[in-house]
Give the backbone structure.
Amino acid sequence: MIYRPQLTSVMSILHRLTGVALALGMVFLVWWLVALAQGGGDYQLVRLVAGHVLGRLVLLGFFVATIYHLANGMRHLFWDFGVGLSLEGVYRGGYLVLAVTGLSVLGGVFLLFFCGGA
Amino acid sequence: MARGQSKREFVGRSLLGRAKGHGAARSGVGHWWMQRLTALGLIPLVVYCLVSFLTLADAELGTARDWLAAPFHAVMMLLLVAVGFYHGALGLQVVIEDYIAHETRRILLLAAMKMLMTAAAALALFSVLRVAFGAGG
């Protein structure tokens, strides 16, 4: 292997990818709000999509992407104040963000697929 | 021109330029600072609205509308949309500037992105207000 990806670079590009995905995914937030205002068939369609297993998977993806971008974004904000910016600190923060994201996968699956309401 | 005056003028302009964020990079620190500021603001907004969404995703129309119509919820949602779209546009701008080398394409894409983000945000904000003021169809 000529180039071995590092945790730091992979997490950096993931921050960008989740950021772009979330910006584009805000279309769904807009759709939900417009359907709430419109009511009737528009809202029923949202419920149908949000209740379907594919819709649930998309929601799970956005949920996990949000948690990752949120946690890693806070890591970036700490760096801006010079906190956790050592080589050791950068890795420790990285593993912490990955752990939080992993927990969010479990939590998201539980809430979206095993909790009746949401 | 006296030497002192010239120096003062130069320093004054430089400081004013710095204060207005017009350094060598033109946009200066304005973009960087707003990205951080909106990020900080989004932490509580995203956490709050995420928890709410998970309990509302499947709700009846009346239940979801009642939730959104409550003043605190409506304002949280308005702030999430406004700050979220602003932060999203700042982020997309960096990505476009980084990857689109062709200048005309880059400028056109930036303009299209900003217009679409503004339009989407306006649509969402208007919808929240419509539900909040009880004028939904």
Observations:
- The CA atoms of residues 82 and 117 of chain B lie 10 Å apart.
